[in-house]
Task: structure prediction
Amino acid sequence: MNDPTAEAARLMKIAEAIVYEMDRQGVADAVADLGFNVMELAKVVIRAAERDVIPFRKPQP
Result:
């Protein structure tokens, strides 16, 4: 995808879906307090949807 506007719209749509689902499950506030970065996850979701290999990162202590 080469259109920056379309890429930004796709990123925002995925980020909104992630936040909605976390809120639906009742964990949005908890992960926000932990400093969760929804935009980083949304970017990984897009990469995975495009069949890129996503390496697993060990959580930081």
